[in-house]
Design a protein that fits this description.
- The structure is a single chain.
- By secondary structure, the chain is mainly alpha-helical.
- The protein has two domains: about 5-10 and about 170-230, no CATH class; about 35-160, Helix Hairpins (Orthogonal Bundle), CATH 1.10.287.
- It is about 75% helix and about 5% strand.
- The protein has five helices and four strands.
- A hairpin with a 2-residue loop joins strand 1 and strand 2 (about 200).
- The termini are close together.
- The structure holds zinc ion.
- Zinc ion binds near residues 205 and 226.
């Protein structure tokens, strides 16, 4: 294997490792949490709280109505029992009963509105709860797929690292240093460029025929005069 070919193989492994590691970190982020799921969870909690508050309000109105009914029944019984003989007292009691009954009518309207509100909120809460259950199922399914993908990638990374180690033993320290220095400078991490159709596949520069020959036979390393990468021709 020529020097350039060894470095090219190293490049293929490193590019594969870069891709795998990038995907692994994406997977970790996806597994850590899902904004859509969190949003659905918050909505469900809000709906549940709104229903709870409205139900408590309805219950309180029902108790008020019950108390008022009891009071009206008591006062009516007193009025019609014949125990009160004083006309002024009877008139006062009659007036008080009228006021209580008016209040009862107003309370009925409030009760009706509160019941409608609870009904509406109960439907909302059910819808949110179902949406949350679905979102949780989806997240669990997605997570299972992601974990399987992660396990596969980890095995692949282990394999690549072993191959890399073996390959590096056949490359001189000087070539490895050069490769690492070029790779560190390139945003895409590519230090070795293949010559395709007579041009550097990374930058498109056309190297001289002497350089192409050098990239082929590889006694010395050929460097692209434009992008500075090590050239390799298959
Ligand atoms: Zn180039």
């Amino acid at each position: 294997m020529s020097r350039a070919e060894s470095l090219y193989r190293l490049q293929l492994l490193d590019s594969e490792l870069d891709r795998a590691r990038k995907r692994l970190s994406e997977i970790e982020i996806l597994l850590a949490g899902n904004p859509a799921l969190e949003h659905t969870r918050a909505e469900a909690a809000r709906a549940e709280k709104a229903l709870r508050l409205a139900s408590a309000e309805l219950k309180s109105l029902e108790l008020d109505a019950q108390a008022l009914d009891d009071k009206i029944a008591g006062e009516e019984q007193r009025l019609y029992s014949g125990a009160i003989r004083n006309p002024k007292e009877m008139l006062d009691l009659q007036h008080e009963l009228d006021v209580l009954k008016q209040r009862r009518v107003a309370l009925d309207e409030q009760l009706l509105a509160a019941m409608e509100q609870v009904e509406q909120l109960r439907a909302d809460e059910l819808r949110c709860r179902q949406a949350l259950a679905q979102a949780e199922r989806n997240f669990a399914d997605d997570s299972a797929h992601l974990r399987a993908e992660r396990d596969k990638l980890k095995v692949a990374v282990e394999g690549h690292l072993e191959q890399r180690e073996a390959l590096c033993r056949s490359i001189s320290a000087r070539d490895l240093d050069l490769y690492a220095a070029i790779r560190a400078k390139k945003p895409n991490g590519v230090a070795v460029a293949l010559i395709k159709a007579g041009a550097c596949s990374q930058c498109g520069e056309t190297p001289s025929s002497q350089l192409v020959q050098q990239a082929h036979t590889g006694a010395a390393l050929a460097i692209c005069s434009n992008c500075g990468r090590i050239l390799y021709a298959q």
